[in-house]
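Action item from last meeting closed. Structure (207 res):
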């Protein structure tokens, strides 16, 4: 099947001609997407596979077991505004697929066992795509959260302490540093998160 034929197959059944696809995230990229907020998802090395067209809808999945973690639409590669989680210095390569996120479910993925994936990118029947999306339900209500990061820093001056603080943040990042989050106005409900998941920071509770 050629790329053009596969694209038409993915778009079949949609009155507006918009295709529906599934993309599979590698495990290490899934972790990067969970740890740091990105507006878009960039997947490289897709020059030899069928690919969605601009405006097509995409379900972002992880494997073992298959789960839906995000939705998005294909957009044109643009200027890089932030560091790439895999390679901060890499340019936009030929064959790069750029998906603008429209909905995230990284914290509560939904099963996608009924989908059969042919590789990193698979055309999906519109009815199957809609059934998968329906499992997400309505998006959660947005609210204000207070997020903090406290580090004891030894330094000679306040300015040096701030410089050391940002140095540690850049070096250790969300994989090692605990971030503390609570609903605005309810600091007693504060929780610590490491690696994108709640983490106990009270050594007495571990005993």
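Sequence:
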């Amino acid at each position: 099947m050629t790329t053009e034929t596969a694209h038409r197959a993915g778009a079949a059944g949609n009155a507006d001609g918009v295709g529906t696809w599934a993309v599979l995230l590698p495990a290490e990229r899934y972790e990067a997407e969970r740890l740091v907020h990105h507006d878009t998802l960039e997947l490289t090395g897709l020059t030899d596979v069928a690919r969605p067209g601009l405006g097509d809808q995409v379900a972002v999945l992880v494997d073992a077991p298959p789960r839906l973690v995000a939705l998005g639409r294909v957009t044109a590669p643009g200027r890089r505004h932030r560091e790439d989680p895999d390679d901060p210095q890499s340019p936009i390569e030929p064959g790069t697929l750029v998906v603008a996120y429209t909905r995230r479910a990284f914290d509560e993925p939904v099963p996608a066992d009924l989908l059969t994936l042919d590789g990193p990118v698979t055309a999906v029947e519109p009815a199957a795509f809609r059934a998968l999306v329906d499992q997400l339900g309505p998006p959660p209500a947005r609210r204000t959260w207070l997020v903090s990061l406290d580090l004891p820093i030894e330094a000679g001056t306040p300015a040096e302490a701030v410089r050391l603080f940002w140095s540690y943040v850049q070096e250790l990042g969300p994989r090692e540093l605990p971030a503390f989050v609570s609903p605005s106005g309810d600091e007693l409900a504060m929780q610590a998160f490491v690696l994108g998941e709640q983490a106990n920071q009270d050594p007495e509770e571990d005993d």
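Note appended to the action item: The two ends are 59 Å apart (CA to CA).
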